Amino acid sequence: MNVLVHIEVREGEVKKASLKSLSEGARIASATGGKVSTVIVGKELAGAVSASKEHGAAAIYTNDSADLANYVPEGYTASLIEAADKADAQVVMIAATSQGRDLAPRVAAKMGVMLLPDVTALAVDGGELKATRPVYAGKVYITMKAKQMPVVITTRPNTFDLARNEGAGEVVAVSPSFASKVKVVEVVAAAGQKLDVAEADRIVSGGRGLKEPENFKLLEDLADKLGAAVGASRAVVDAGWRPHSEQVGQTGKTVGPSLYFAVGISGAVQHVAGMRTAKVIVAINKDADAPIFKLADYGIVGDAMEVLPALISAL
Amino acid sequence: MNIAVLVKLVPDTAAQIRLNSDRSWIETRDLNWVLSPYDEYAVEEALKTTEAKGGEVTAVTYGGDTAAEALRKALAMGAHKAIHVKKDGFTDLLGTATALADAIRNGGFDLVFAGFKATDDDCAAVGQMVATLLDMPCITEAHKLEVGDNSLRAHREIEGGYEVLEAPLPCVVTAQKGLNEPRYPSLKGIMMAKKKPIEIVTAQDVPPRVETVSLSSPPERPAGKIVGQGAEAVPELVRLLREEARVID
Prior knowledge:
The structure holds two protein chains of two kinds.
Chain A: E1 3-7, E2 9-10, E3 13-14, H1 16-31, E4 36-42, H2 46-54, E5 59-64, H3 73-86, E6 91-95, H4 98-111, E7 114-119, E8 121-125, E9 128-135, E10 140-146, E11 151-155, E12 170-173, E13 183-189, E14 202-206, H5 216-226, E15 229-232, H6 234-238, E16 259-263, H7 269-275, E17 280-285, H8 292-295, E18 298-301, H9 304-314
Parallel strand pairs in A: 1-4, 1-6, 4-5, 5-12, 6-11, 7-11, 14-15, 14-16, 16-17, 17-18
Antiparallel strand pairs in A: 2-3, 8-9, 9-10
Helix pairs in contact in A: 3-4, 5-9
Chain B: E1 3-6, E2 9-11, E3 33-35, H1 37-53, E4 57-63, H2 68-77, E5 81-86, H3 93-104, E6 111-115, H4 126-134, E7 138-147, E8 151-158, E9 161-168, E10 171-175, H5 187-193, E11 198-202, E12 210-216, E13 225-229, H6 234-244
Parallel strand pairs in B: 1-4, 1-6, 4-5, 5-11, 6-10, 7-10
Antiparallel strand pairs in B: 2-3, 7-8, 8-9
């Protein structure tokens, strides 16, 4: 199977989730005697071109244009389709970042093919591609088989392993015509927020047990010590203590960091659905019977306001 | 301004989801069914927009007989009428999007709202697919929206910030949390919903392009340990994270 992987670039910076997608794409291509290629759209593409080569791309399709420096859905869609055509791709892979989630369904619908979104495992079995993905916010996993190719797949960030593997990396320009309808007029960085929960490898989340919105300062200090992002439960987001961008759970973000602190969070089904795939979970809660302790690798029964300062000074 | 809202009935997000006895699908007995939470934001935004600018809201859903409950919930919130695109059995994503696009193609809609994802299959794709099939612009995951006479402006969250986007009408917009505070249906709304018209159209039978191989429950996490009580347990926790779990330096 020939696999084409989209490499997302924002202001010259290559998304790690895209390189993980490429590593998995290279594995599928090599297992089936196919070739893996990449497609890169935007401006300042040099970093993405060399990263593509280092992670196995045989061909690299680029649409280098100042008009595409910000995300232009129609322009990116057309570029991916032209590259898929040139690469004779049976599988088009896109990391399920905020851009990838927007882009992939457009590519699939325009190609008239099936989309398998937010995939966490891929396998080739008897020449058929099988994809596993979480549904009901990870309460169930479903494995599906593609009955028709090509197919578009989005891969969940923080799931697949990075693998280095030098490819031929032949660069081919693509420049399809397209009618732009949606325009990004401005990109605004969130105030004060250093790390996004969706991308962070360590997360410290807080809930009602922090008692007051001001007490999230302690959680922010812990996050600083750990190089972690701050997350929040639905209860504190609904109460207006924290922005929705920080919410972890079924109606927030689904995360899979290597370390997750649940502080003053009881562990409602809604929340657990969003973080149960974290590698190591630490719970701090004053209620010894809180359901979060059933899930946590390590727990401390105690008041978050006493435990957090001790933890911050111990790190 | 005439608006279509794509809605779906899903299990309550607070529900535990278990597989049925032959593990061929989820156990649906005893589940409480709700309008997908993001669809509530979509319905609310459509109602707010027509309240400000006039026009009608048409709720549209796809699926078997029980799917119509989503339409009743949207009508109870205040939608004026509804379309039920009827189809039993499994349909793939593109098949669903195609049927919905066909149902609204000639409706003269200035705006199409949908939740950015349904909280059952979590695909987050139908809005973009419908827009692509209808050759309409599409803005996804909007958490702020201003609708003008011929165009709209929306905020969409990205990693570490947000984008400000503009698009001409007609346009498809998918709703993210934060867009508004959905209203609760009033008793009068619920009574009136029963009298509002639901048009039934039959979807084309498209063979699915994917097949379900298996379903599984997520692996159980091994039992963890309570390290101790209060601040005194902190040194031991830090030691375990360093030496046993090796997740911090």
